[in-house]
Amino acid sequence: MTGTLWYCYAVASRSSPGTFDHLGGVADAEVSAVPYNDLVAVVSPVREAEFDEPALRSRLEDIGWLESVARAHNTVVEEVTRRGVALPFRLATIFRDHAALTTMLAARETELLAALARVTGMVELGVKIYVSAEAGDRPGAVPAEPDADARPGLSYLRRKKHEKDTRESGWRAAVEHGITVDETLTAMAGGRRAHRPQSPELTGISEQNVLNVAYLVAEDDIDVFVEAARRLQDDSTACRIEVTGPWAPYSFALDDADAVSVERQ
Fold first, then answer.
1. Which of 32, 33, 53, 253 could form a disulfide with 87 if both were Cys (CB 3.0 to 4.6 A apart)?
2. Where exactly are the structural domains of the chain?
């Protein structure tokens, strides 16, 4: 199998990208722009043997290969968004040929132009809230000592119940503060997308990720948004707030209601 497929990194306004001389994409392939009316798709050729559907299913299990593709993908997206507003596509969005690509652009032109307008002047900031095992270890009222004639083992049971209640109270406080954080930051943002919380196995840290949200924030408001998150962190020791970005608006490229898989066209 020696055919060529087309890897699509992003869609941008036709006035934004220009040329991509000396910019290498996935597998160091040359990056180019495919125009359609006021849109351009930013693409590079890839080998069919490596990126057709059966090959992708296998290679997506290869962490080293996946990381290499992700780095190249992000490098291209960062360059495109540096030049102007763009809608990043998901990793490994593949089209059979230029005809399939322009067919997609034609079918979704109105939607894509609206999405470009929505993210103009905006960036994505990620916020994760973590709760540690110590969240429930804050001191509480010490349970009363049992009577001298209490049944054997009752003191132990009371102590264990108190420890459990204290842990649960700490978790409740952390989750409630997380809700406050999310509500406050959502009010400051132009959009919000909730993602699945990440497991400790994925993050490599012992803390439990209880909230994983992307916010669409105006470029001029980044510092204000980050400062608000810092103040919210100062208001609570029950959880840890992590802010990442600014990123290209991956989470806001298409409205959830309009998103259609375009991996295989």
1. 253
2. 4-120, 123-250
Residue-by-residue DSSP string for 36-103: ETTEEEEEEEEEHHHHSHHHHHHHTT-HHHHHHHHHHHHHHHHHHHHHS-EEEPPTT-EESSHHHHHH
Show the CA angle centred on residue 91, arms to residues 2 and 10, nearest 5°: 95
Dihedral (CA of 229, 231, 235, 239) sign: positive
pLDDT truncated to tens, each residue of the chain (265 aa)?
A: 459 999 999 999 887 656 787 889 999 999 999 999 999 999 999 999 999 888 888 888 888 999 999 999 999 999 999 888 999 999 999 999 999 999 999 999 999 999 999 999 999 999 999 987 555 444 444 444 455 455 555 565 566 555 566 566 767 787 888 899 999 999 999 999 999 988 887 778 888 898 999 999 999 999 999 999 999 999 888 789 999 999 999 999 864 333 333 344 4
